[in-house]
């Protein structure tokens, strides 16, 4: 199984690398921008980018600097805590993400599978990812709607961890504080 996962990863990286090169960005810069295009307001900080990508703060700092210089990223100071910086892809940055993802290799491969096999493949890969994260004590970085802290209320969604309301778009975004409900962690 390791060989299959490794080969899939290599194919995706090669495709993304070539597409990044055509857009004038390095893969690590794209990976940071791609993550920031999918994360929520609790997870759009330099520290969260470093955690998500498994890189040092120094590497991430240089990466973010280049993205900002290329007008692909904006830095915004938090309105409540001046020590916190939020990172937002610009319209140009989001356009770049759309041009590079999804990998054409993955998209064309998935499209050639019957719909039922497409769904089964996604479910198996999600289970594998969760198992790897759980066994190794890794942060899950998953959407709020799958989190144990997300509570559905009459007037919408609410995060029990941050004690803040969540919008419908919020619950679809990646969160660094995410934790699967205990009942789904063992599946």
Structure description:
By secondary structure, the chain is of the alpha+beta class. It folds into 2 domains: 2-100, Arc Repressor Mutant, subunit A (Orthogonal Bundle); 113-185, no CATH class. It has 8 helices and 7 strands, in the order H-H-H-H-E-E-H-H-H-E-E-E-E-E-H. It has a 3-stranded antiparallel sheet, with no helix packed on it. Strands 1-2 form a two-stranded antiparallel ribbon. Strands 3-7 form a two-stranded antiparallel ribbon. The mean pLDDT is 92.
Helix content: 40-55%
Q: H/E series, N to C?
A: HHHHEEHHHEEEEEH
Class per helix and strand makeup: alpha+beta
Biggest β-sheet strands, sense, barrel: 3 strands, antiparallel
Shape, per Cα inertia axes:
globular
Helix count?
8
What's the CATH architecture name of the largest domain? Orthogonal Bundle
Instruction: Look at the structure and give the mean pLDDT.
Output: 92
| C-alpha-based Rg, rounded | 18 Å
Strand content: 5-15%
Kindly report the oligomeric state of this protein: single chain
- What would CATH call the homologous superfamily of the largest domain? Winged helix-like DNA-binding domain superfamily/Winged helix DNA-binding domain
Number of strands: 7
Strand order of the largest sheet: 4-5-6
Number of domains: 2
Q: Report the CATH C-level class of the largest domain.
A: Mainly Alpha
Query: How far from one another are the termini?
Result: 19 Å
Low-confidence stretches: none
């Amino acid at each position: 199984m390791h060989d299959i996962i490794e080969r899939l990863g290599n194919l995706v990286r090669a495709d993304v690398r070539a597409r990044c090169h055509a857009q004038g960005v390095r893969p690590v810069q794209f990976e940071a921008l791609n993550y920031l295009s999918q994360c929520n307001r609790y997870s759009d900080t330099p520290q969260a980018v470093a955690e998500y990508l498994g890189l040092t703060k120094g590497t991430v700092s240089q990466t973010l600097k280049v993205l900002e210089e290329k007008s692909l990223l904006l830095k915004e100071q938090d309105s409540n805590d001046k020590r916190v910086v939020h990172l937002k892809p610009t319209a140009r940055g989001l356009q770049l993400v759309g041009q590079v993802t999804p990998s054409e290799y993955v998209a064309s491969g998935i499209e050639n599978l019957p719909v039922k096999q497409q769904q089964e493949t996604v479910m198996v890969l999600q289970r594998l990812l969760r198992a790897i994260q759980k066994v190794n004590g890794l942060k899950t970085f998953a959407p709020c709607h799958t989190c144990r802290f997300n509570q559905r209320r009459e007037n919408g969604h609410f995060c029990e961890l941050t004690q803040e309301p969540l919008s419908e778009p919020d619950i679809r975004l990646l969160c660094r504080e995410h934790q699967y409900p205990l009942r789904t962690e063992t599946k």
